Every structure is written in C-alpha cells, then in structure tokens.
C-alpha cells in the first residue's frame, strides 16, 4: 500500500503512556481469540470484558502514567500508518457525503492506547481488539493488536491493517447516518438470538463500508494493487464467526454469530471494493439466506 508523503490525521489522541496495569492468565493469542469471538469490531464492551475475565485473561489494576515509555520503531511506524489511514477515511467520506447529499460528515477521533483505557462505553481493553464507541465517536486501538492478528490469525499486510481501521470507521459512518442507533434500539427489544442477527447485519455493513472506502482510496490515490486486496480479503476470511469459533472450540454455533461467517465477511468487503456505492450495502433489508 503506497502511503509515502500522505498526510496524517490530527484527530488522534495518543494515550499510550497512560496505561492500565494487569496480569494475563491466558497467552496474548488466547486473549485475542476470546476477545475476537465476543467483539472483534464494535458491539458490547461489557460482554467482552466478562468473557475475557472468565477465560482467565486480563485483570485490571490501576491506571498509570509513564513519561519514560519508549516505543519501538515498529510501533511508531504503525502509529503513523494509523494516522494516515484515518486521514484517508476523512478525505474519502467527507467527499462522498458531500457528493451524495448525505449531510456533513463528522470526523471520528482515533485513540491509541496500551493495555486498557476509559471510554464512554465502558473500560476498553487490548483483548477486545479495535472497537468503536458511538457514545464518544472514537475508535480505540492498541497497536499490539496488529502483531497479535498476524501471529494468532495469520492475517498480515498494510491493507489488512487498514481494513481493520476502515471497518471501525464504517461503524462511525453508520452512526452519522443514524443506522447504528436505530439498530441498537431494535436489538434492545429483542431476544439474544434475534439481536445477534441484527449484530451480524451491523458488522457486515461495516465490512462493506470498509470496502467502499478502499474503492475510493484506490481510485483517488492510486495506492492499491492486487496484493493489497488479497491481504484484506484474507483478513476477512479469518475473522468470521465460524472460523474463530472452530479455531477456539472446534465447532461453530450459528445462533451465537454476531459478526457473520468468513464467507459473508469476504463477500461484503469485496462488494464494497467493487461497487463503491453505499446504496448497495443495505444488509438490514436482506434475509439471513441472502446475506
């Protein structure tokens, strides 16, 4: 992915020197899998916290501040990369909203943190993976997730990482358009199984929006090639609920899916990448079989 000379977003809070302490009963890879199974991208933070705790994961202690923290060159490169991808989403979605008379696009804020941080949705932990909080319109990322993603899931590459960020921005697009709030209200009145089906539609649409962003990132900046697309599609294939559940417990329980199968996630990401048209991504209008 070609990003040389590209601007970096200023809508970033770097909290990496303000971190939550804790101990890990699981290996980091195991913690990531538990977090991914419950909430890889968006959703109920409290559920992830409880599931990670029950599985022997991180235990929170106090928040500490360290001015002496030094970051590796790799982490600093990832921080810069994340700021550049956020800037790209700002450019793409601002232009898209204006062109299609969707109102004014509000830029979200990216929060970089280490281990744990406070959010308007509750306490966020690295075990959750990247997530979006509609309460404060912020994306939260512990950059160590990217190395864990590579080691635990075999998903690697610039555009795979960009897809993760763009998916969370996709939730913000849903929020700005009012889709996310309506879906959450609907879920609150449903059984767990029915709410899960709505959650799948939320996540698949965010995958689609990530693809729409990729469509314009490539056309506006000429930054993508076939290898980049393969990286993102591979990432989508290993974060499907069926894949993660089989990896974790040996079998999949369809009624518990909250993000969609590997095939669904790949399909909706590719649909966004090939159409660049958000009107083609109404996952809420489709039956389970049509997804």
Walk me through the structure:
With 291 residues, this protein is of the alpha/beta class. It has one domain. Helix content is 53%, strand content 14%. It contains ten helices and seven strands. The strands form two sheets. Strands 2-1-3-7-6 form a five-stranded mixed sheet, covered by helices on one side. Strands 4-5 form a two-stranded antiparallel sheet. A hairpin with a 4-residue loop joins strand 6 and strand 7.
Features:
two-stranded antiparallel ribbon; alpha/beta; 7 strands; single chain; 10 helices; 291 residues; 5-stranded mixed β-sheet; 14% strand
What is the strand arrangement across the widest sheet? 2-1-3-7-6
Overall structural domain count: 1
Radius of gyration (CA) equals 18 Å
**Quantity of strands, as a count:** 7
* Secondary-structure-derived class: alpha/beta
Total count of helical runs of at least 4 residues: 10
Strand proportion: 5-15%
How confident is the prediction overall: mean pLDDT?
A: 85
Helix fraction, binned, reads 40-55%
Element-by-element helix/strand order: EHHEHEEEEEHHHHHHH
Report the major sheet: 5 strands, mixed
What distance separates the N and C termini? Answer: 30 Å
Q: Which residues sit in consecutive blocks of at least 5 with pLDDT less than 50? A: 21-34, 37-46, 48-63
**Morphology call:** globular
